[in-house]
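Entry 12.
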Amino acid sequence: MKDGKGHWKNMWFGTSVGMAIMSMFGIIWTFFSLQWVDGVEFMYLFLFSMTMACDSTPICKQMMFVSKFRYCVGIYVHALTRITFKGCFFLFLGSSLISSSLMNIGGFFGGLGAFAGALGWLIGLMSLVAGVMKSTQLKTCRQQIFEASQGQPGRLEDDFRKYARNKDHLEPDEFVQLCQSFTGIVWKPQDNMLIFNALAVSDPRSQLMYHPDFMNWVMNSGVTIL
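Predicted 3D structure (tokens):
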């Protein structure tokens, strides 16, 4: 699971830092050009960009401020930990930064800000599409597991104990093996990170899927948004 985090998180972090830098430049620009009302918009964009950067940072995770901030995001803005909602948020940030940079700064630096915004918009679109596709695949996986378990009473409980090695939880690799035994679907490491983040609600670190979480997911007919 650890190996799969880098791909998306590095893109989110790099894009967030780029937008935060250009938003800060916009704050400075509007301050000295006396466009203070427009500066408020850049200030919001900076705060939102830094929120995304702190949440997806691959470095300094153990620093007190960063660690507490990431914890608060997970508790109070949990939607931003899902790839689908992250994509929507990046679309908003990117579009807003493009508009603000072109309207209030202009010239070379305005174009640079628009480029950062376009990059954020593109990453947001990629994240949104990936989130929808993976959510759909997870729903298909759940349906197949549910149907197979209905046809063979007791199999779901037996297989959970088997792949959990008689523990009360599944680890990422064990979850992959269980899903494969029912459906033939093999989840990638980066998919594990997204799935456990959405389903492992009983584990504060979202790294272990306990038996109640697994059973609730299988028996719930709704769509789990990754």
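Annotation: Strands lie at 169-170, 209-210. The longest helix spans residues 107-151.
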